[in-house]
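Entry for the shared binder. Reason: the reviewer on the internal report wants the predicted structure included alongside the sequence.
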Amino acid sequence: MRKAVILPWFLALALSQSSPTHTVQRGDTLYSIARRYGTTVETLMQLNRLEDATLSVGQVLLLPARALEHTVQRGETLYSIARRYGSSVEALQQENNLTSTVITPGQVLRIPQAALPPEPPPEPPADTDFNPQHPLIQVVLKYLGLPYVFGAQSNRAVDCSAFVQQVFAELGIRLPRTSREQWAALPTVQGALRQGDLVFFSFGGGAVDHVGIYLGRGVFAHASSHGSRVVIESLDSPFYKRVYRGAKRIEGP
């Protein structure tokens, strides 16, 4: 499994931000990263409070916020996508320069920012049991940046439920393979979330089809199909709040 050098400030940075991030790989430079994400070296340095251009492998850099995108799935229409994001067919057409309503699976559509609900004002974290030294956190950090591949379950790539299953397997806890099986097998969380709870989502609008691990302070780790890798993101983002279905608790060591 690919391992990264974890700097002392790594976890605090990941848990305190909900912006998109990039984990520095061998050979990366500020210039190559800025070019990859369509930004500038100056913006990256300012956003990450860097005094010089020196980078370390495993370092996590904050990236400028990017527009929400949606990859068209089989059977979807502009109408169903617009309804999912609280937008309109006309707004999607205008945002993506479409002259008709014809879309194809795999096509990437930009979602109009006006369609997204406004970001709520920051609130103090509800959880009080966050422990950065918890073994769970140490295992999750080993997986950050690992590629997402649907159906994969290995040290080279994982999907969302395989990531969860493998993390807890390293802690001596056996879980079912799929997100739906995990949802069905575990008790529902009553009250505030705790570090290590599993958080479930429905991207398709029906049964649960995605799962992640709650880390505390309002963030969770998951193998993201959108980001194509294991990442840490905020549960309070408008998209995840919209597709969130609930949490389940693992009772174990």
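Summary line for the report: Residues 160-170 form the longest helix (11 residues).
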